[in-house]
Amino acid sequence: MATHTSTESQDLYGDDADAGAVFTAAGGDWDQVVEDIAAVGEERIVVNMGPQHPSTHGVLRLILELDGETVREARAGIGYLHTGIEKNMEYRTWVQGTTFCTRMDYLTPIFNEAVYCLGVERLLGITDQVPERATTIRVLMMELNRIGSHLIALGTGGMELGATTVMTTCFRERERILRFFEAVTGLRMNHAYVRPGGVNQDIPDGGLELLEKEIADLKGGLGEIERLLLENPVFKARTVDVGYLSLAGCMALGITGPILRSTGLPHDLRKSDPYCGYETYDFNVVTRDSMDAYGRVCIRIEEMWESIKIAEQAIERLRASVGEPIMVADKKIAWPAQMSVGADGQGNSLDHIRRIMGESMESLIHHFKLVTEGFRVAPGQAYAAVESPKGELGCHVVSDGGTRPYRAHFRDPSFNNLQAASVLSEGGLVADVIVAVASIDPVMGGVDR
Amino acid sequence: MSDENQNTDETPEVNVENTRAEGTAGPRAAEAPAVSGAVGAREVAHKKGMFGSSLGNDTSGYGGLERPVLFPGASPRPFGGYFDEVADHLERALGTAYAQSVESIVIDRNEMTVHVHRDRLPTVARALRDDPALRFEVCTGVSGVHYPEQVGAELHAVYHFQSITHGMRRVRLEVSCPDEKPHIPSIVDIYPANDWHERETFDMFGIVFDSHPALTRILMPDDWPGHPQRKDYPLGGIPVEYKGATIPAPDERRSYN
Question: What span, in angstroms and rounded, lies between the C-alpha atoms of B164 and A420?
Answer without folding.
Answer: 20
